[in-house]
Amino acid sequence: MAQITNRQITHSFCLLCGGAGFMSLMVIDNQYWLFLSMVGVGIAWASILTLPYSMLIGGLPPKRTGIFMGIFNFFIVLPQIAVSLGFGWVMDNFLDNNRLFAVVIGGVFMVIAAFLTQRVETIPAQDLPKPEVQLSEETAV
After folding, report:
1. How far is CA 83 from CA 34, 77, 80, 91, in A?
2. pTM confidence score
3. By the 8 A CB rule, do 26 and 104 touch?
4. Do 114 and 12 meet the contact criterion of CB atoms below 8 Å apart?
5. Rounded Cα–Cα distance for residues 91 and 101 (Å)
6. What's the pLDDT tens digit per position in 38-84?
C-alpha cells in the first residue's frame, strides 16, 4: 500500500483502523465481532512498528543514523513512561476506574495521530545522497 500511495497515507490509514478497532469496543456486544476490532488493532500495530522508522530514515544523514534513531526512540518511550505514571490518576478521577474508557481514549488518540501524520514531511529516496560503502580487505565480493 505504501508503494501505491505514500508512507504517510498508509500509516494514517493503519492508525485509523486501530483507532476504529479500539473505539468499536464500546458498542460491540457479540464476542465474535471482537475479532474484527482486533484485526484493526493488529493492522495499526504492524504499522506502528515499522512505518515511523521508515518515514524518519529518509531525512537522516547516513553517518548519524544510529544516533538519531536512538533519540527517536526517546519520543516513543518517554510518553509511555508518562502515561504509566499518571494515567492511573486520570482513571480514578475522571473515568470512574473504567478500563474500557481508557482503551477508547487510546483509540481517539490513534485517530488524532492519523491526522497529524499527514503533516510529516519526508524526503524521497531518490533525493538522498548515496552513502559511500567502504569494504574492508576481509570482505568477500
Report:
1. 25, 10, 5, 11
2. 0.79
3. yes
4. yes
5. 8
6. 999 999 999 999 888 888 887 788 888 889 888 988 988 999 999 99
Work out the percent of the chain whose per-residue pLDDT is above 70: 86
Position 124, amino acid: P
- DSSP track, 8-41: HHHHHHHHHHHHHHHHGGGT--STTHHHHHHHHH
Q: How far apart are CA 141 and CA 126, in angstroms?
A: 26
Instruction: Please give the C-alpha separations between residue 118 and each of 59, 80, 121, in angstroms, as whole numbers.
Output: 16, 23, 8
Please, are residues 107 and 23 in contact by the beta-carbon 8 Å criterion? yes
The percentage of residues in the chain with a pLDDT greater than 90, rounded to a whole number, is: 59
- Identify which of 104, 120, 127, 128 has the alpha carbon closest to the alpha carbon of residue 11: 120
Q: What are the domain boundaries of the chain?
A: 7-121
